[in-house]
Specification:
8-stranded parallel beta sheet; 23% helix
């Protein structure tokens, strides 16, 4: 009897362990937003967050990160939706960091348009995308979770439930281990959760989002229709003495409806009543639930009211064992002080952290000190505490791997319009006076293909006030790179520009031009560094930049610049095109080259180029009608460069008659 009793206890223990392992092992965390939410992998600023950020997040007593990714934009498109290798390169590193730090991480498919309905054909994208993810990560740790789709909306619950079920089955044919996060329609709200199907698969978590009452949480939001930018000062809880009048432009809109309801909804009881529906649904269905997003937009809300809302919601979650990830870490809903540089050691919103029950690291006062050593501006990625700030109408790629001067990547810029800018914004203004006075240089590698090209590199100082002033403007220090500095012969050139050789360049401020004033540029408050097509439109001009830094020492291997080892086919321009397009290719030696056109099924359409070419870069204009007549229908095609019956490179082209 005693032996049987012990066996029963062991069985119960093992069942408990299995059940625990089958579900979420996380409690609370953050969304890392505006990182992988890009239109392609090449627009991801990968070093915006680093392993150190994950360490900081964990130190707040967080054990989970939700990583929103515009997954559908990371593919080749229909029909195969093949995920770009560059996304794997980035995502693998993030998952490595999470596993090293023992942090759970949710791969959130954030491919959605808040103003456009979820397509009824979305399953045709979801299934191939999730098959690839499951195949790649099926043998990784269970710290990784798969979230099928963020906030489906404008699609019936029955249809969405069926599509979501098909995607679950697709994943399970490959990966039976990792937990899948599923959701309901209606933007994953409380009401949508109650309409979600309870699937047979038991290794699921059912997620919902909570932004209620919406009038309070989204005051100031510009992305809703109509815009709520003119809604501000909504108190929480509701206080008739503090309640602002509703601007007249909202009369007759849905915003007037939620404004009129706010006196009954803007309080703790109403919040609890809404969240209690989640708990009742969870308990009645015997499922796991998780709040993937909740928060209050800080732009037009009072911090004390915002903090109170977070305290109420977080305490309800904790009391009812609902895991959560706040939207977001940095940004308009984030954990940092409004208007700050969002530095972990200086700018955390301490009352908000207290309301969320997080650990509170010591905060320090920030003081700008002169840079005493050089620093990287671009080295495969933008440097530390540097964000990209771009205005570009041509083609720009920060991860060109065809022939970097150093490292894995370089910047490739082509067909820039006049005044287009590649900007590197210093999150903390730079005091460069020491470097200026001690012989430091701007150093970089440059490559171009067109003689008589001229571009500017420049520093911009900080405008102190938004008020108009005779002298307070974002002043420039400029240097022009032209044929006197660089031989534009499609080979890498190493250049060094003393900081003392930058000259006053005036200012463009609020649509007005201000002529240079000698000595007015403030080297103690440098806001950004820019590369600019200042002198003309650069049609057909290919420019490359690498290893941009401020330094007082030349790199030892500055002259050891590699040439490409393989045949390279560059993206055609324009693309899409309707009659003719420019095609460029590089061959490392004298070779017979063929460039052929194929349809998306791999069937050869015709020959574009056939001949022998010497080492170097070559370009030509391909006229579709002259080459193939008028028989080529509009659509997507694959262009391949081949030599000796071997395919070396390919690009996707879009032809529009």
């Amino acid at each position: 009897m005693k032996k049987s009793f012990h066996k029963t206890l062991l069985t119960l223990f093992l069942l408990t362990v299995f059940a625990t392992l089958s579900f979420a092992q996380f409690h609370r965390g953050v969304n890392l937003t505006n990182w992988f939410q890009a239109n392609s992998p090449r627009e991801i600023q990968f070093n915006k967050f680093t392993k150190k950020d994950l360490e900081n997040i964990k130190s707040l007593d967080c054990d989970v990160i939700r990583l929103p990714i515009n997954l559908h934009s990371m593919t080749s498109g229909e029909p195969d939706y093949t995920i770009d290798p560059l996304l794997w390169y980035f995502l693998d590193q993030v998952l490595d960091w999470a596993e090293e730090l023992n942090i759970n991480i949710i791969i959130d498919n954030h491919s959605f348009d808040p103003s456009g309905d979820t397509s009824t054909d979305v399953g045709e994208i979801l299934k191939p995308v999730w098959r690839q993810i499951a195949e790649r990560y099926k043998n990784r740790s269970r710290l990784i979770y798969y979230e099928i789709l963020n906030e489906p909306h404008g699609i019936s619950s029955s249809l969405w439930n069926a599509i979501q079920g098909e995607v679950i089955n697709e994943i399970r044919q490959i990966d039976t281990v990792h937990t899948i996060v599923v959701t309901g329609t209606d933007y994953s709200g409380v009401d949508g959760l109650k309409e979600v199907e309870i699937y047979a698969d038991t290794n699921l978590i059912y997620t919902f989002h909570f932004y209620e009452p919406f009038l309070f949480t989204h005051q100031g939001a510009s992305w809703v229709t109509p815009s709520m930018e003119d809604i501000s000062g909504i108190p929480f809880p509701y206080d008739p003495d503090r309640m602002p009048a509703l601007p007249s432009q909202y009369n007759g809109t849905w915003i007037q409806s939620i404004y009129n309801a706010y006196s009954s909804q803007g309080n703790e009881n109403w919040v609890d009543s809404r969240l209690s529906q989640v708990v009742q649904f969870r308990n009645s269905k015997n499922i796991k639930v998780y709040c993937g997003e909740f928060g209050v937009y800080m732009l037009n809300s009072e911090n004390d009211d915002r903090v109170e809302w977070y305290r109420i919601v977080r305490e309800y979650f904790d009391e009812n064992n609902i895991p959560w990830t706040i939207w977001d870490y940095k940004g308009g809903f984030g954990l940092f002080e409004k208007g700050s540089s969002e530095l972990f050691d200086y700018d955390l919103n301490v009352p908000l952290l207290e309301a969320l029950g997080m650990n509170i690291p010591p905060q320090k006062e920030f003081e700008i000190k002169p840079d005493s050593v050089g620093f990287k501006i671009y080295d495969d990625y933008p440097g530390e505490l540097i964000n990209l700030s771009i205005w570009n109408e041509g083609y720009l790629d920060f991860y060109d791997d065809s022939n970097p001067a150093k490292g894995n990547f370089c910047i490739h810029w082509t067909n820039a319009n006049r005044y287009n800018i590649i900007g590197f914004d210093f999150l903390i203004d730079k005091d460069l006076t020491y470097l200026l006075n001690n012989g430091y240089f701007l150093r970089m590698y440059v490559k171009g293909n067109t003689p008589n090209t001229a571009i500017d590199v420049r520093f911009i100082d900080t405008k102190e006030s938004e008020k108009e002033s005779e002298t307070d403007h974002p002043w420039r220090k400029i240097f022009t790179i032209n044929d006197e500095i660089v031989a534009w012969n499609n080979t890498w050139q190493y250049i060094e520009i003393p900081l003392t050789e930058f000259v006053d360049g005036g200012s463009w401020d609020n649509g007005n031009w201000y002529d240079p004033i000698p000595g007015i540029f403030d080297w103690t408050k440098v806001d950004r560094f820019e590369i600019v097509a200042e002198h003309s439109t650069l049609s057909g001009v290919d420019l490359y930049f690498d290893e941009i830094c401020i330094s007082n020492k030349s790199p030892v291997d500055k002259d050891k610049i590699p040439e490409p080892k393989n045949i390279i086919l560059y993206q055609n321009f324009p693309n899409p095109f309707n009659s003719a397009t420019i095609i460029k290719f590089y061959t490392p030696e004298y070779l017979h080259i063929e460039i052929n056109l194929y349809d998306l099924l791999g069937r050869k359409i015709g020959k574009i180029l056939d001949g022998s070419y010497s080492q170097g870069m070559h370009e030509f204009i391909w006229n579709v009608n002259r080459s193939l007549g008028e028989k080529l229908p509009s659509g997507s095609y694959i262009c391949r460069v081949e030599s000796n019956n071997k395919i070396y490179d390919s690009i996707k082209m879009l032809y529009m008659k």
